[in-house]
Amino acid sequence: MSSGKLFVISGASGVGKGTVLSRVMEVREDLKFSVSATTRPPRPSEVDGVHYYFISMEKFQEMVEKDEFLEYDLHAKAGYGTPLRQLEEKLRTWNVVLDIEPMGAKIVKQKRPDAVLIFIMPPSVEELERRLWGRGDTSDEQIALRMERAKWEMDQRDWYDYTVVNDDLDRCVEEVLKIIAEKAD
Hints:
Elements: E1 6-11, H1 17-27, E2 31-33, E3 36-38, E4 52-54, H2 57-65, E5 69-75, E6 78-83, H3 84-91, E7 95-99, H4 102-111, E8 116-121, H5 125-135, H6 140-155, E9 162-165, H7 169-184
Parallel strand pairs: 1-7, 1-8, 2-7, 3-4, 8-9
Antiparallel strand pairs: 3-6, 5-6
């Protein structure tokens, strides 16, 4: 039986959730990151087992068939999922955070009603698009696709436990830390 609390953080690409999560984890030493599995190839800076578990589509399908994911999804021509075994191992000792898409978050909430879901919102759709353009590593087509998906994702925030607007990074981090403190301690 687990003793830790499960937290889910979601938000559209470009909203800054990775930065928020990184800062939160610097403060909360009792919080561990649940590493997702993916079938997409690693980016140059990504390390297997740290950023993702990089697996083949065949292995992914095998894990799906054996019910070894808490949640999984296929999007952007790749599979993504939360391996159940590593999550349960971490939850025995730690509070754990997942960084997943809204569809996965909904599945987590169905399977683990005690999970706390936090949605990170951009200050505006225009600001989100500006941030995506500012990265300088995304094609016009990819930005259009991400913006379309982002609008759908932002519509999902209503069924999350909490919504935090990332209009000021320090304030956003503090708000997320306050939620975690209230639910974990």
